[in-house]
Structure formats: C-alpha cells, structure tokens
Design a protein that fits this description.
This is Transpeptidase family protein. This protein has 696 residues and is α+β, with helices and mostly antiparallel strands. The protein is built from 22 helices and 26 strands.
Length: 696
Amino acid sequence: MKNLDPKRARWIRIRMGILCGMMGLGLGVIVSGAHRIQVEDGQDWYDLAERQRQRRLHVTPKRGTIYDRNGASLAESVEVPSVSLDAVELLRGIEDRYLPMRIQQYGERIAQALNLPQEEVVDKISRRRRFVWLKRRVSEAEVAAVRALGEKNQRYPLRGLQIEGEGHRFYPNRELGGPLIGFVSPDGEGREGLELALDHELRGKSSEVRGLRDRSGRLIFSEGIEDEAALAGHNVYLTIDKGIQFTAERELEAAMKTYEATGGAVVVADPSSGEILAMASAPGYNPNDYSVADPDARRNRCVVDRFEPGSTIKIFSIGTALAARSVSPTASIYCEEGNMAIDNVVIHDTHPAKFLSVTQILSLSSNIGTSKIALGLGEQRLYEGFRRFGFGDTTGIPFPGESMGVLRPRGRPWVSVETAAASFGQGISVTTLQLTMAMVAIANGGKLLEPVLIKRVTDGGGTMLSETQPRVRREAVSATVAKMMSEMLVAVTEGEGTGVEAAIPGFRVAGKTGTAQKIDPATGRYTDTHYVASFVGFVPADKPRLVISVVLDEPLGGTYGGGSVAAPVFRRIGEMALRYLGVTPRGSVPMKLSEVSERAKVGDPATSTYQVLTEARAAVAPITAGVVTPSAPMKSGETRVPDLTGQPVREAIRAASAAGLSPTAFGTGRLSRAEPPAGTVLPKGSTVKLFFEPSS
C-alpha cells in the first residue's frame, strides 16, 4: 500500500471499508434472523418440530357392560378386527408413470382378499389418504388373507394395510329386552333405549396417546395414558331380572300369537322399592340385527305407548273417593239395572244390577256404579286424585321418549259426562308403566314411588360410583285406604269377579281387569271391533311381592276381554316369578336344597331334579283333568260337562264329543276353562266352549 499512489490506496481502503460494512451488515442480518428464530419464535418452531415427529392417537375407551340385577350380561362390547388403509404408504416410492397400473393391481388383490368390489377399493387408493376404512368387522379368513398380502417373501408386498381391533356391541341374549336395551350404531354411539339414555356413562372419557413416529407415520414409542380409567366405560347394573324378563316376554309373545294382537306390554315391579324386575314389549327385535328390524318393533311400548285404561282406572277412581270420604266402603249404590243416561249419553253395564256394594262395583266392573261414585266426588277432586297416583305426568324413569299420557283437555275442566267417562277409563290415556306404578302405591300402603331401573353404576375396576335408592314421590292415599282397596280387589279374582282367570293357586291375588274400546281414526268414534285388553294386579295380596301389568293391543283371537286375554298372562308370569323368588303357596312346605341335592345324586342329575320339581308342583296343584265333578242327577238324554282342565286340544275335543257334547275350541295349548263349567248338566248335543292357553 506504501508503494501505491495515494489516490489509488485511498480508493482501495474505501472499497475494503464498503466490503467489510456489507459483510458486517449481512452478518447482522443473519444474527438477527437467528435470534428471531431461536429466541423470539423459538417456541413456535419447537412446537412445529414436535408435531412433525410426534403422532397423536385418540383412544376411545371400551364401552361399559350392561348387567341385570344378578350380574348376567345383557349388553357387552367385544373386540373385532377391522382393516384400514394408508394409501400414501402403499404407493410410496412408485414413479408417477406406473401409478395407474399399480393402483389397479393393488386394488384387485385387496378386493379379492376382503371380498369387496374392485372399483370401491381402487377409488379409496386413488384418493391417497393417510387413513381410510377398507372393511370393518372382518372374518378370521379375511384377516389371514390381508396378512398374506404384506408378507415380504413375495415380489410386491403391500404396505399400509393395518388390522385394528375395533369395539363391537354384542347382545348375548338376542331378542331378550331388545326394545328396553336399544342398540349402538357403528360409530359407537347409543341410538335407542338404555344405550341412548346411558350413553354418557357407558362410553366413558376419551384419552390421547402421544409418541414418536417414523417416516411412514407409524407409532414407534408411546408416552402412555395418563388416565388408565379412560380405557373402559362405566358398567351399569339394572334392576331387571333376566329370568323374570324371559318369562314375561315368552308369555306375552304366546298371548299375542294366540289372540292375534298387534302389540303388547308387560311390566313387573317390586312394590316395596319400585324396582322394575321386567319390562317386556312385543313385537320385539334382535339388537344385533337392528338394521333389518321394523322401526315399530324397536319401540318400548311400556313407556312410549299410551292407551285408554278402561276399567283398570276404577281402582284409582274409587280409591280417591274413599280417601276423600265421599263414599262409604259399605255403601250400596243403585246401578240403574244396567243403563244410565248422562248428558244425552247412555252408560251401560255388562252385568246389569240394581244395588251393588263398592266391592261388587269393582268385582263386577260396573261403569254406572263407578260413575255415580265419581260424580259424587266431583271432577276437580277426581282429577287431583288421578294426579296423586301419577297419571298425566312422567314417572321419572331414565328412558328416552317417555309419554306423559293424557289426563284431560287443556285449559278446561270436565263436564259431567266426561267426569263419568274418565272414572271408568274413557277420554284419558296412560302408559303401562304409569299404571304399574299407580298399582304399586296401592300394594305398598299408599306411597307413590319413582320407578327404579338403574340399580348401580361402577367403573371399569368395579368401584361403586352411584347407587339408586327408593324414592317416594308423594302419598297417593292413606295406608288404611290402600289396605281397604287391596281387600276389595281380591274379590275381582274370586267368585264371580271379572278377573278369576288371574287367580294363582295357593295365593290371594288382588287386581283389576280392563277392556277399552279404541277410537276409529276415520270416524273419531269408538269402534266395536278394536279393543285394548289389560290386567293390573299384585300378589300375594296380604304381603305383596310383585305388581304386574299386562296390556294387549287389538286382540282378535275370538275374545278381547281383559279377564280372558290379559288375566291368564298375569297368572302365568306370577306363578313363575313367585316360584323363582322362592315364595311358596299357603299350605305347602318347600323342599330344602339339601334334599334336592340328595335326590339328584341318583341317576341323571337333570332328570332327577326335574322330577323333584314336578312332584312339588303336583302336590300344590294336583291335576284333575278328565275327572267328572258330581252334581245334580242326570235325566234321560242329558250329559254332564267333564273336567278336562290341562288337556291338549285334540284330547279335550275327543273327550267332550264322547260325552255327547258339541265342543268349540278357542286358542291353542292346553284347556284352561270351559263354558259352561265342568259338572254342568246339559242336554246331549249342546255346545260347550273350550278355551285353551299355551303352557307356561
């Protein structure tokens, strides 16, 4: 620089200064950018890097199990294999010019393995998504075929196919309790019944799993699940008893077939606690195959359907009047010999009479007698009495779609004819569950309980989370009135009462029949061809263990009365349930379990046990089929109706014909009763009606 011209040296220094300044400025920009990236925006870039190298999986917990009161499974989740596809991984490394050919080849191979249309598989591959379901709930053979596609010993092994366990809801008892339990859709959400009502408890809480992933997006390291309880939903224990539920559904289905009814409902409850032991609805369906079921069959008629109760409401009309002291239990009421006009409407009785006591009004189901009691009570007090028994309001059961029923027109009171009609069950509507809970109030001493369907809820480890206790809503009537009504209702099932078909040998039964005309939608008037037959009662009458309501919609099998259609269903369900609960008839001595075990050691255990139970049942209710009951002496040309109770159709008809009678059969199964009854002396050739019922 010393040997250079001063001007040239100065110019060189200037250029070097400019260059150093530019380099310093560039370095400053780099340092500033590095500071902004690493310090100011460092957390954002760190989060981005973590998201790129980590994979998050949302873990859906296993859906909880629904059990009956004894721990028998009613609905459970099982793991079934499903096949998914990562199309990006499947096509990785293939040149663009070969993609169409490879997609077709891969689509054909996958379609053959899973028995799917090739076009559908090709379309899913062409979309090139990281996740798509190929087929859900595959068989073991299809699983093996998919695994074979990924074996590396072949020329073109397929990548990106995943076999994943997926929860599937399974109902081990098939149709049992279908309308009550409901079903779960493929996305894991409850859609109907208790599956919908308890969806929040059964599904549990979803959790998230984080971990590292490789270049293919596969999880190679998991950080674990913070909440282990997220792996399973809550388990629900119902108050339903599987054995009683099975009997209720079986007897209801048999009655529907016998009488060609369009629908039916049965509710069995424990009057001391309000627990629902059975809730049967027919026709039913199999929740495992809900997609092919008729939507009408998926409806829980016990809770959703409302109907005019007919004469069963007389229990609560008369009970309200007795509680209000507007009528004396010993009063004798003039029943107009079967016809009474109110507001240009004539009310009829099927059993015309002059004077009837309150008990006779119930046992003979007098519309006129009940109407006079209700008119003496007054429409407002009758309405309030119905409300105290829970009519016109929901019961509080945790079930979707519960109907409130219809108690009276909105905004106006009843006129006289409406008061009279409401007292014997016309112009109002109730549900089977409402009717059951109202009868529970009579059976337990006057307390209206809230129905209990959920006994307890536990977590996946069995820890108790909640337990339902009996809850009294209000006092419907006093204990004295309830006891009085119980004794009156026993007369319905004895002697000349309308519900003698509900009588259970060895037990006093309290109940009431109902036969209600249905309204023709075309005319808006009551029809003479369509009816609702019902029976509600409890047993034993002195210490009630069971309250049972039976409703059959539009029975057409030759008879439609509640006493002949619904009452026998009550009897058969009651007989089985009492035996199942260990309640023995009066005068019988139950055999000890040790004695049954000793008898069962001889020969085949199942056969020996069956013989023991058969002998015990025969000792309580001996079979009298074919026995002729002595009565008045016969004259020439007369014959006596033989007692053929329990005989099948063919044998009963043959025996009646041999006795010189002309038999007419109604129903199927075994003979339950005859009209005229056994022992009656008739002229030879007279017609005798034989009523058959399916064996319980």
